[in-house]
Amino acid sequence: MAEIDEFLQKVLADQREWDADPTPQTPAYALLAAGRVKEAETLAHKVVSDLEQDDAATSENIGFNNQNSLAENNARLNHLADALIAHGIALARLKKLEAAQATLERAIAVALEAGAPDKAGLGALTMIEELEQLSRESLLSAYEQASVGMAKMRNRKLQWRVIGAAKKVMASFRSEMNSDRALEILLARPASLQEPILPSEGTLIVELNHRVLFKRRTEVHRRSPKSDLR
């Protein structure tokens, strides 16, 4: 009986994890949800400044062999990444696009420094969602960061956000695709969030990953011909 109860508790915990709201429960995000963008930007900016001051004051005291201090520093960096993402969203919605992109790129760098690739992936996902002016190259790079960083996150809402981002990236390539195929990809919708991803959605991800791989190979090919210099 105890084993059955333990199993049921695990199932319920997994279900809560899949269905949980991934949005950080902070005042800045609450203001964003309420449409009070200017107030959210002001608050997020202050939070970022305060965290940066705290980080500068404490980082000098962290010893290389002090694991507790390192863990605390990573936790602070995680909070800073969250605040930077919120600030980037607010800046984007205020149409301060260059500042928003710089802020979100910094959020990704801070998250990676904290050893939190999932948070870095969230920052990249936010870039795709919030910034309309990104080049196709930047969109591909952001999608690559998002898909890799968030690959192990077990949350239904985040998974669908990644799929939505993939569609946005693919839309930037629609002029290079057959119009019927592009329409099929962009209009495809699963019947229910409880159902697995449909083939058209899976094909979308495969095609987008091919784009990423092609980009990597092109970059390697461009760097490879060193023999011409000999």
Present the secondary structure layout.
Layout: H1 2-19, H2 27-33, H3 37-59, H4 67-93, H5 97-113, H6 117-130, H7 136-149, H8 156-171, H9 179-187, H10 199-223
Helix pairs in contact: 2-3, 3-4, 4-5, 4-6, 5-6, 6-7, 7-8, 8-10
Q: How would you spell out the order of helices and strands?
A: HHHHHHHHHH
Tell me the domain tally: 2
How much β-strand is present in the residues?
Answer: under 5%
Main β-sheet description:
none
Categorize the overall geometry: globular
Could you please describe the fold and organization of this structure?
The chain is an all-alpha fold and 230 residues long. The chain has two domains: 21-133, no CATH class; 134-230, no CATH class. Helices cover 74% and strands 0% of the residues. The protein contains ten helices and no strands. α2 packs antiparallel against α3, α3 packs antiparallel against α4 and α4 (67-93) runs parallel beside α6 (117-130). It starts with a helix and ends in a 7-residue tail after the last helix. Residues 185-202 and 226-230 have low confidence and may be disordered.
Nutshell version of this structure?
The protein is mostly helical. The protein contains ten helices and no strands. The chain has helices at residues 2-19, 27-33, 37-59, 67-93, 97-113, 117-130, 136-149, 156-171, 179-187, 199-223.
